[in-house]
Amino acid sequence: MVMALRCLLGLLLLITAVACSAPGAGDQPPAAGGTVRHDGTPGTTAGHATAHPESAPQTTPPQGSVSEMTAEQVIARLAARIPTARSSIVYSAQTDPNQLLGTPNLYVSKAAFTDTRIDPAQAKDTEIGSVELGGSVEVFLDEADARARKQYIDETIADLPIDVSEYSYVRGQVLLRLSRRLPPEQAAEYESALDAL
């Protein structure tokens, strides 16, 4: 009986020693490709203060991060790459002219922008937020909803008796719509900028 108690006590001491030597939350190494923030918690090199920022490798945001952006943030990123793009309006459920913002299977954020290379005098629709003056961004909960919206717009435009065509691109949960007033090479700049988000 005494021998069994000694064995049990020895086993408990061994388990305690191993548990105490295991790394704690502040001692854990960063995840692969990450760094440690000044507060000691794991982080990534993108967008956070790092323990040694001068030696930390620069990385691009993780793929899929665009899914966490609002339409306004997507436009800001596009404008950082295309200096002629200017944010013009950020819609709310009350100001969305389509009254679709926040409805099931449709966009959860929407914003529009202008492009200074487009002459408003040549546009047929000069209302604030008109895609013809630059473009718009619609962000959805998932890619399937974004693609369904693109298909609906494409089919609607094809059925109209007048030319109101536009460029449109889906990347993940984001639908980018561009003015037909932009020549193909300028539309391609936006497509490249969208790919780089």
Which spans of ≥5 residues are poorly predicted at pLDDT below 50? Answer: 1-64
* Class by SSE composition: alpha+beta
Q: How much strand?
A: 15-25%
Element order, helices and strands?
HEEHEEEHEEH
Helix content: 25-40%
Note the total helix count: 4
- Sheet having the most strands: 5 strands, antiparallel
Q: Briefly, what is this?
A:
By secondary structure, this protein is an alpha+beta fold. It has helices at residues 2-21, 71-81, 143-159, 184-195; strands at 34-36, 42-44, 85-90, 109-115, 134-139, 166-171, 174-179. The strands form 2 sheets. It has a 5-stranded antiparallel sheet, with helices on both faces. Strands 1-2 form a two-stranded antiparallel ribbon.
Task: Explain what this protein looks like in three dimensions.
There is one protein chain. The protein has 197 residues and is α+β, with helices and mostly antiparallel strands. It folds into two domains: 27 residues, no CATH class; 131 residues, no CATH class. A five-stranded antiparallel sheet has the order 3-4-5-7-6, sandwiched between helices. Strands 1-2 form a two-stranded antiparallel sheet. Strand 6 and strand 7 form a beta hairpin. The N terminus is likely disordered. Keywords: Signal. This is Lipoprotein.
